[in-house]
Amino acid sequence: MKMETDLNRFHKIVRGKIKQELKKFIANGSLIGRHGKETISIPLPRIDIPHFSFGNNNKGGLGQGNGKVGEKIGPGEQEGQAGAAGEGPGQHSLEVDVSLEDLSKMLGEELALPRIELKGQKNLSSEHRKYGSVHRRGPESLHHFRRTYKEALKRSVISGEYNPEEPLIVPIKADKRYRSFTVTRQPVANAVILYMMDVSGSMGDEQKEIVRLTSFWLDTWLSQQYKGIERRFIIHDATAREVDEPTFFRTKESGGTLISSAYRLAVKLMESHYPPQDWNIYLFHFSDGDNWSGNDTAECLKLLGEQLLPAANLFCYGQVESRYGSGQFLRDLVKQFGDKHDKVTLAQIKDREAIMGALKTFLGKGK
Question: What is the mean pLDDT of the chain?
Fold first, then answer.
């Protein structure tokens, strides 16, 4: 019992430390390399739970033994200060495994994120088995002992074999009963995330790393909101193409930018694979704000207004600051949508320290 209490205290302390350092963890790219399928390893400073140490201490001092009249009371010996080499205790770190579900909850608590309003639950469903019936046949692993005994007792009484003075009941094969299940279909909400990123010459490695970090935390939150989630990745410069996740974050391109090419490809994927009545659709676009021309920006705004926004739960644009990017596209989106459209969220991500604020902006509407 004592061990369980200490363990619970330790978990609370660890959770508090992680929440305290969450902003640092979000901006730290090395953390992503530590995550597995269900958990992530987080390095924390050494944590000691307060405890009593028992033993003999004959050093004397205040509160130890009988003092003498006139004896001076001074500070005790200080540990870790003697000798030139190895001075003082070392600072040791502790790695703890935290489930992605717990990490998602901490993110939601720290950013005060609302639960997402799901749609599509009437159209998608999953099978659920409920053991609520009894059959005469079945595997021994599902043998229902109480019902079998009841059937054997009933047969014994009806046949006159039952002796109240020696109530011995021996079931036969015909008495055996087995648990059986019925299959019901429960509604579930599935989601797809379409990530789009500008990989033109003005997007450098640091800008792509910021996108990678932001995407990881977006994934962490959304994956805990839905039982099924898919991800599609689109990169674009003057043209757009769908790629896998490693290619998305590692591609080095050059050339101009036509943002509309990514939006047209997103429309194509949605029409062919993700009907909006069945899917919760999330669109995340990252760029440094450069576009080839005002005509293409007008085409982007048209695609957003007429096709992407009506079908999506949310469209998020994150503008990653670059010395080569003009940042004009964000200004165009603000002018067109501003706060007028509840499905549009816009964030300027100047550096890694700004990722946490962008997450709050993107996910704060609970869409």
Answer: 78
